[in-house]
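**Protein record**
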Amino acid sequence: MTESKRVLTKKDITKLAFRSLFLQASFNYERMQAGGWLWSMLPALKKIHKDDKKALSESMEDNLEFINTHPNLVGFLMGLLLSLEENKEDRNLIKSLKVALFAPLAGIGDAIFWFTILPIVAGISASFAMQGSIVGPLIFLAVYIGIFVLRIVWTHMGYELGTNAVEKIKTSSQSISKSASILGSTVIGGLIAAYVHITVLSEVKINKEHAVNLQTDFFDKVFPNILPLGFTLLMFYFLKKKKASPVLLIAVTFGIAILFSALGVL
């Protein structure tokens, strides 16, 4: 796409980076950061789609779907996807890239910021502070400001990358969409395996001295993790086939967990 066809300006992308600060402002367990994500993108989406209310509505609906990524790197993904929106790319391609990239970015961000940079800087800063030097907190503040400024850099970088690669993406849209869908499904599957845990505490007494634990002696040996898998598929069935509300399913899950825990089953 040539420069003259662009709708968004550098000022719009910088504004997007600042609005991404509110990514987690409406965090919830149904769609995680979706509300903050859409709020950050909305001015740019309105500018791109202008009077086309149908296109804007479809875009807003897609951008209100579940997302959970790293707050410091989210601008990169926002910029990348906005460049595709700006070029009127296929909605399935944009959605697939979003699903495929948000979790890997979260993992990369956690590894870089929470597990590497901040612990090292905090250790150095604390060392200075314990000696009574003001240099310690100043170093920590400077690093935090640097991370904040990098939000703007990531956002512009994502937008420029998407803009420059849009022709390549267009010619390979089907293979990219398929690859992104596979990667996204793999990531979501990994998240489910990591987050869904069901442990049965009940035991079946054989005699006075021996008892069979249903979890360790039966489920874990016959089919490990079959209960989390079955529960996940059951929730998927209610969401997909019965169109059940996610909030209702969360409430039912809490109720079942509390009831069976009180009965000593889980």
About this structure: The chain has a mean pLDDT of 85. The radius of gyration is 24 Å. The CA atoms of residues 8 and 64 lie 21 Å apart.
